[in-house]
Every structure is written in C-alpha cells, then in structure tokens.
Amino acid sequence: MKPALYPGTFDPITYGHLDIIERAIAIFDHLFVLVVSNPNKPFLFSVEERVDMVINSVACWDRVSVEPFDGLLVDEARSRNIHTIIRGLRAVTDFEYEFQMALTNRSLDPHFESVFLMPSNEYSYLSSTLVREVARLGGDVSKFVPPYVQKKLKEVYARRDKTAH
Ligand code: ADP
Fold first, then answer.
1. By the 8 A CB rule, do 54 and 33 touch?
2. Hey, what CATH class is 3-125 in?
3. Residues 6 or more apart from 94 whose CB is under 8 A from it?
4. Which member of 23, 78, 83, 90 is catalytic?
C-alpha cells in the first residue's frame, strides 16, 4: 500500500485543495489530510470547524481520511511510517516557499519525499485567503468552495458582524 500525507491549514478548504486531493488519490492508495491546528496562528475557523469542513467535502472518497495535526511534519510522517507528502503548486509565488520547505524537511529526514501536484488552470490563482476576503465582503464564493463551506463562511461572518455591533 502506498499512502501519502496532505498537510495544510485549510482555512477553509477550497476547490483548489479538492482538485489536488483528487489528483493525489489517482496516484496513492490512501491520503491522510492533516489539518494543522497551531493555536498561535489567527485562523478564521477553529481546527474542529476546519476538520469538519474537510470531512464534509471529501465524503465522496473512501480512500481519504482527515485528522487534526500539530507538531513537526517529519515526526508525524515517521511515526506513521509514511514518507511522502503532497503539496499543491499554484503560480510561481508558491515555488520559493515550497522549495525551501521541501529541502528543509529532507534535511530533517532523508527518507522524506515531497510530491508537488498542479491544479487545473481555473484553480491556480485560488487561495483560502482570497476566499475569506471575498466572503467577508459579501461576495459570491460558490465557484471557489463547496456549498457546505459557503454556508459556514456566511455563518462565521454573520456572527462577527453581530459581535462588532
Ligand atoms: P493556503 O496556502 O491557501 O493557506 P493551505 O495551507 O491549506 O492553503 O495549503 C495546503 C496545500 O494546498 C499547499 O501545498 C498549498 O499550496 C495547496 N493549495 C492551496 N490552494 C491551492 C490551489 N488553489 N491549487 C493548488 N494547490 C493549492
């Protein structure tokens, strides 16, 4: 069996992430989506909410599991005996950071391999940051995220508006 890990913040999950997941399971037998919890980062959604949205969005695939994660990725990979991580590569802006991270992870563990997959053209500019910004301003994000995530975005900004008044 050839499994792989797909780590990310998924704040929230978008069709870009789902495009990568679909490509990854065409190559690997099982994909573990790891949702980074890191309580020191100011996320829009809690880790429980982010995990819930990912679970809901990947329900159609039985070879994908979703778990929260905090710590060093190479340690997590080693403890699961999995040596491959999947990363998505969008425009050239992702390259520098991903290159640095891949080589750093490899120097921490020489067995660790990063596999980069490119999304379809239509998602190659899409980021969770952009989705949050459009949703915050009341724009239509139906092209970027599944309906369940759309609903959660509406709820979170409605909650915020209420507390701001
Ligand atoms: P972001 O980088 O948007 O904050 P994540 O940390 O959740 O998102 O990203 C997890 C992985 O998914 C990263 O490798 C990132 O480059 C990739 N990714 C995010 N959005 C897309 C997209 N639209 N197309 C392809 N890969 C993506």
1. yes
2. alpha beta
3. 88
4. 90
